[in-house]
Design brief:
The complex is a heterodimer of chains A (83) and B (179). Chain A is an all-alpha fold. Chain A has one domain. In chain A, 72% of the residues lie in helices and 0% in strands. In chain A, helix 1 runs antiparallel to helix 2. Chain A is elongated and about 55 Å long. Chain B is α+β, with helices and mostly antiparallel strands and 179 residues long. Chain B has a single domain, classed as PH-domain like (Roll). Chain B has five helices and seven strands; from the N terminus they run H-E-H-H-E-E-E-E-H-E-E-H. In chain B, the strands form two sheets. A four-stranded antiparallel beta sheet of chain B has the order 1-2-3-4. A three-stranded antiparallel beta sheet of chain B has the order 5-6-7. The longest helix of chain B has 28 residues. The radius of gyration of chain B is 23 Å and the shape is elongated. Chain B starts with a helix and ends in a 6-residue tail after the last helix. The chains are: A mainly alpha (83), B alpha+beta (179). Chains A and B meet through helix 1 and helix 2 of A and helix 1 and helix 3 of B.
Chain lengths: 83, 179
């Protein structure tokens, strides 16, 4: 279950990087003013990496076992889904 | 350093000078950004209001999940805002001393470039409709051509009357003087 969650997040992470690559490629390829393109990249790239690192850190801090811990044996301890 | 701040485009001729670079009016992109601003506002409000609903929220496992969801939404908002910006910024009309170049960014993966020489221009007209376009002075400029291209249209550009006068002035320069 944890592997599935990690794989799903990995797919989302790759999509972030693909979108980032597309935007940077577009700005560099079709620029008609290098000065303004440089300013756009200086704004976009740091904030993107800031958000990305925060996103990765927040994902790492989630304890998924708290959400998917289902005890089928009985009521020992704290059972979130009592039968 | 001057070359770094000058405008240029692919296919520009050696002695071709760029007279004006025209983009859509800022009000057009503001309308598209309103949704993103609303989402950002909701995010900040949710951060502020959560303690009122659950004072012990930060000690629960849901707080980490909430922060992750908020950061994911922030990431998507940032990326989509730049997609919208690219669609706006790279949609441009370039008026040079030789021709008008229309670079049209259609969505994310489609781009078309068309050009129109001044000698092919038959008529130029403007159209400003509505309260907000009248107040903010933006509208359409229609350039009627002699060729198969038909009309060349500048959409939602600022100060269309000034753009029309520029095109007309440049077009008159191409008319050969009759002795």
């Amino acid at each position: 279950m944890f592997a599935i969650i990690n794989i799903l997040y990995f797919i989302v992470f790759i999509s972030y990087l693909l979108a980032f690559s597309f935007i940077v490629f577009h700005i560099l390829r079709y620029s008609i003013n290098w000065k303004k393109s440089a300013i756009m990249l200086l704004v976009f790239i740091p904030i993107f990496f800031l958000l990305l690192s925060f996103n990765v850190a927040s994902f790492s801090s989630i304890d998924f076992s708290e959400f998917i811990n289902i005890n089928f044996d009985g009521f020992s301890g704290y059972n979130r889904f009592p039968l | 350093m001057k070359r770094f701040s000058n405008y240029h485009f692919n296919g520009q001729h050696k002695n071709e000078q760029i007279i004006k670079v025209v983009r859509r009016h800022w009000f057009n992109i503001l309308q598209q950004f309103l949704l993103f601003f609303a989402i950002i506002l909701i995010m900040f409000v949710s951060f502020a209001l959560i303690p009122f609903f659950s004072q012990d929220f930060t000690n629960t496992e849901f707080s980490d999940l909430f922060i992750f969801i908020e950061s994911t939404v922030a990431m998507f908002v940032w990326l989509f805002m730049f997609f919208v910006w690219i669609d706006y910024y790279f949609d441009v009309w370039i008026i040079t001393n030789e021709r008008i170049v229309n670079i049209e960014q259609k969505g994310l993966f489609s781009r078309s470039v068309s050009e129109l020489e001044f000698s092919k221009i038959q008529d130029v007209s403007t159209d400003v409709k509505g309260v907000i376009p009248t107040i903010l002075n933006f509208g359409e400029v229609y350039v009627q051509t002699a060729g198969t291209a038909g009309k060349f249209i500048f959409h939602k550009i600022p100060d269309p009357y000034h753009i029309k006068s520029i095109i007309m002035t440049l077009q008159k320069r191409t008319i050969p003087k009759q002795n």
